[in-house]
Amino acid sequence: MTDNTSTRICFILRVKPEMLEEYRERHAAVWPEMLEALATTGWRNYSLFLDDDGLLVGYLETDDFATAQAAMAETAVNARWQAEMSAYFTQLEGRPDESMRVLPLVFNLEQQLAAATFAEERKTEQ
Questions:
Q1: Angle, helices 76-85/32-40, rounded to nearest 10 degrees
Q2: Other Cβ atoms within 10 Å of 74 Cβ, number
Q3: Which domain holds residue 28?
Q4: Is residue 72 within 8 Å of residue 38, measured between CB atoms?
C-alpha cells in the first residue's frame, strides 16, 4: 500500500542491447552500501523493469524526489555506482541518475477509487 504523502516516480532509460545480460547480472546483487544509501536517502519501493529491447523502466516512491536525488548525489557510493553504470546506457546526458526521463502520472487506481468514494459519500450526505 502506498503512503498518501509519497510521490510516485516513474522514469525511463535505455540499456545498450549488447549489455542487457550483464546489466541484469549487476542488478541481481547490488552493492550493500548502495542499497543502504538508497534506503537512507528516501528511495522506497524502488524497482527496475528491463525489456529485451533495452527499455529500462524505473519506479520509486519518495517524499520529495529532488531531495532524494540530491542526497544520493552526495554519497560516495553513488558516484562509484554511476561511473560504472554509465557504460550500460545509450543517449545519456550526464550520469545515468541525471539522465532519467521522468514520466508524468496519468492514472492511479487508489487515487481514483478514493475520489470516487468521496464523491459517493458526498452524494449520500446531501
A1: 120
A2: 11
A3: 7-125
A4: yes
Is 100 inside a domain boundary?
Answer: yes
Spatial neighbors of 33 by CB under 8 A, at least 6 apart, are 77
CA within 13 Å, CB half, 103: 12
Residue 107 burial by CB count (10 A; 0-12/13-18/19+): exposed, middle or buried?
exposed
- Catalytic positions are 27
Number of domains present in the structure of the chain? 1
Residue 70 is placed in which grid cell?
A: 540530491
Nearest to 34 by CA among 68, 80, 70, 69: 80
Residue ranges of the chain with per-residue pLDDT less than 70: 1-5, 119-120
pTM for the model stands at: 0.84
Cell matching residue 50: 528491463
Q: Rounded to whole angstroms, how far apart are CA atoms 60 and 58?
A: 7
